[in-house]
Amino acid sequence: MSVGNDGTEDAGWDIDPEDEQGVAVLAALGRQLRAWREEAGMRAVDFGRAIGYGEDLIRKVEAGKRIPRPEYLDKADEVLRAGGKITAMKADMEQVRYPKKVRDLAKLESRAVEIGVYSTHAIHGLLQTPEHARALFEMRQPAYTQDEVERYTAARVARQSVFDRTPAPALSFVHEASALRRPIGGTMVWRRQLEHLLKVSEFRNVTLQVMPNSRAAHAGMDGGIEILKFEDGTGVGRSEGAFNGRPISDPKRLRILDLRYGIIRAEALTPHESRDFIKELLGET
After folding, report:
1. 162/41 Cα distance (integer angstroms)
2. What is residue 92's DSSP assignment?
3. Do the Cβ atoms of 187 and 281 come closer than 8 Å?
4. How far apart, in whole angstroms, are the C-alpha atoms of residue 130 and residue 71?
5. Do the beta carbons of residue 48 and residue 101 sit within 8 Å?
6. Count of beta carbons in the 10 Å neighbourhood of residue 231
7. Residue 269: what are its φ and ψ, rounded to 5°?
8. Can you name the residues that pair with 209 across neighbouring β-strands?
9. How far apart are CA 238 and CA 248, in angstroms?
10. Exposure of 133 in the CB half-sphere (CA atoms within 13 A)
11. Residue 230 has what DSSP assignment?
12. 3-state DSSP call for residue 82?
C-alpha cells in the first residue's frame, strides 16, 4: 500500500491504460467528483485535507488516472454532503477495481455451475487465505510494487465470492502434496492456510483431494488443469501441458481435459484421506 504526499494512506490503484472499460468508467467518475468538489467551492488541496488525502492524489482521481478505494468515496460523500450520490458510485468502481484479466476470470467463475482444478506448485487462488495470497505476490519476480501486491491480493480474495453463490456451484480441487508442505509466508500463515483448507473441505459443494508424492506418475504430470462448465452445457478449460496453455472451449478438446482430470481425481487420495493428510501436516507444525 503506497502513501500520499502528505503521509496519509493512498486512496487506490493506478488504472491500466490498456483497460479500455476501466479507463472510460474511471474518467466519468473523475469528472463527477471534480464537479461535486467545485460546486462545493473547495480547492483540491482543501478537499484533500478534509478527507485525509494529498492534493496530488485528489487530482489523479479526478483526472481518471487513479482508482479510488471505497472509503475514499465514502469520505468524499460526507465532506461534500452528496447525500449518498457519491457513495453510490462504488458500484461503478467494482467494475474496474481489479485488473481486467482478473475481472474476466471472475466473470467466468460467477457463471460456472461446475469448476474443477488440478493444482501443482501452489494452492489454488480460490482456496488461498489473504495472508497466503499476499505472501505469494510478494515473492513474484520481477517484484511487484506494494501497491500492486495489495491490489492483486484484494482481487484474488474477491473471487472467492463464488463460495457464497446460490445455488452453489460444484467445486473440486486436487492439489499436489508438495504444495501443501511448502510454508509460504511462514509457519503461522501456513497453519492458517491449512486450517482454511480443512474448513472449506467440509462444504457440501466442495471436494478437496490431495495427490500424494507416492504416485510416481499420473495424468497431471504435464501441468495444472482448470475446467469451468456452464448451465447451457458449454465450458472452458486450460492446461499448462495441452493446447499451448491457451484457454479452449472446443468440446473435443474439453473432453481431453475432462478425461485427464477424471484420472487425476481417481488416483488422488479420497476426500476423507485428504483431510487426514492435512490434519497430519498441522500436527507437524
Report:
1. 44
2. H
3. no
4. 20
5. no
6. 10
7. -65, 150
8. 174
9. 6
10. 21
11. E
12. coil
Predicted TM-score (pTM) of the model is 0.76
**Using CB atoms within 10 A of its CB, is residue 146 exposed (0-12), middle (13-18) or buried (19+)?**
middle
| Percent of the chain at pLDDT exceeding 90 | 73
Q: What distance in Å separates the CA atoms of residue 246 and residue 141, rounded to the nearest whole number?
A: 22
Do the beta carbons of residue 210 and residue 278 sit within 8 Å? yes
- Please, what is the angle between helix 130-138 and helix 146-159, to 10°? 140
- Kind and range of the H or E element at 37? helix 20-39
Question: Residue 229 is inside which H or E element, if any?
Answer: strand 225-230
Are the CB atoms for 177 and 213 separated by under 8 Å?
yes
* φ/ψ of residue 165, rounded to 5: -70, 150
Comparing C-alpha atoms, which of 239, 227, 129 is closest to residue 169? 227
pLDDT for 12 beyond 80: no
Number of residues that make up the chain: 285
Secondary structure (3-state) at 225: strand
Burial class (CB in 10 A: 0-12, 13-18, 19+), 227: buried
- The residue written with cell numbers 491480493 in the block is 153
Give start and end residues of each alpha helix (H) in 112-250.
Answer: 130-138, 146-159, 177-181, 187-201
Over residues 70-106, the pLDDT tens digits come to: 899 999 999 999 999 999 988 888 777 777 777 888 8
Q: What is the band of 4 on the pLDDT scale with cuts at 50, 70, 90? A: very low
C-alpha cell at 24: 472510460
Give Cα 214 distance to the centre of its chain.
Answer: 32
Task: Give residue for cell 501441468.
Answer: 223
- Phi/psi for 172 (5° steps) reads -130, 140
Cell 457440501 maps to which residue?
204
**Which of 99, 91, 89, 85 is closest to 21 using CA atoms?**
99
pLDDT at position 93 is 80
